[in-house]
Automatic annotation (TrEMBL):
PROSITE patterns: ADH_SHORT (PS00061). One of its GO terms (biological process) is fatty acid biosynthetic process. It comes from Streptomyces kasugaensis. Belongs to the short-chain dehydrogenases/reductases (SDR) family. Its EC number is 1.1.1.100. The keyword NADP applies. Keywords: Fatty acid biosynthesis, Fatty acid metabolism, Lipid biosynthesis, Lipid metabolism, NADP, Oxidoreductase. This is 3-oxoacyl-[acyl-carrier-protein] reductase. InterPro entries: 3oxo_ACP_reduc, KR_dom, NAD(P)-bd_dom_sf, Sc_DH/Rdtase_CS, SDR, SDR_fam. SMART domains: PKS_KR. NADP(+) binds at G9, G10, N11, R12, N75, Y140, A141, A142, S143, K144. GO terms for molecular function: 3-oxoacyl-[acyl-carrier-protein] reductase (NADPH) activity; NAD binding. It is an enzyme of class 1 (oxidoreductase).
Length: 234
């Protein structure tokens, strides 16, 4: 059965791979994007998730064109890496506002229809950094760790309504962001990963699609690492 799916930040990288995975499975897929030209083949809605009114308008458009959101993937996020002594308050709050509070906004708005339908799938995209920490990433790690507590609280709150809430925590993924690293930086990272390679975005997407499937109906409050073993033990 074709479902109404929303992937925030679905215009590139991991988000785009997730959107494509659902579309290939026959679902109706909407994506949000903040700037640039969105990819074709999806219901693309321009939306800054730090703005509650834009989130509301995005949902209204999606509901009108493809129905109430049945599967939500909260993927949109930003980084502003900096050592703590040089990190401004705006560096910290802007990352938390987008990555954590932004997820709160889109989940809360999706929750309305899911509660009425007494079913739903919510997947939050965190990061191995949220579990391990990362020097120069206190803001990013705090926001991504926050998603775990947020998801587990909602899993308890919404489970009786047949709504599952899970987290996928990717490691280092082969995207434009990681390709910008120097060879020396990439070598340092590779030495920490037991599988000795970067993930492909499609590998993250496969885990997300599984969590949204009927086969995963009894999984909620879980944190699924897709990190080549980098964060094992967490």
């Amino acid at each position: 059965m074709s479902r109404s799916v929303l992937v925030t930040g679905g215009n590139r990288g991991i988000g785009l791979a997730i959107a494509r995975a659902f579309a290939e499975a026959g679902d109706k897929v909407a994506i949000t994007y903040r700037s640039g030209e969105p990819p074709e083949g999806f219901l693309a809605v321009k939306c800054d998730i730090t703005d509650s009114e834009q989130v509301e308008q995005a949902y209204k458009e999606i509901e009108e064109k493809q129905g109430a959101v049945e599967v939500l993937v909260a993927n949109a996020g930003i980084t502003r890496d900096q050592l703590l002594m040089r990190m401004s308050e705006e560096d910290f709050t802007s990352v938390v506002e987008t990555n954590l509070t932004g997820a709160f906004r889109v989940v809360k708005r999706a929750n309305r229809a899911m509660l009425r339908a007494r079913k739903g799938r919510i997947v939050l995209i965190s990061s191995v950094v949220g579990l391990l920490g990362g020097a120069g990433q206190a803001n990013y790690a705090a926001s991504k760790a926050g998603l775990v507590g947020f998801a587990r609280s909602l899993a308890r709150e919404l489970g009786s309504r047949n709504i599952t809430v899970n987290v996928v925590a990717p490691g280092f993924v082969d995207t434009d962001m990681t390709r910008a690293l120097t060879d020396a930086q990439r070598d340092v990272i590779m030495k920490q990963v037991p599988l000795a390679r970067y993930a492909q975005p499609e590998e993250i997407a496969a885990s997300v699609r599984f969590l949204a499937s009927e086969e995963a109906a009894y999984i909620t409050g879980a944190v699924i690492p897709v990190d080549g073993g980098l964060g094992m033990g967490h």
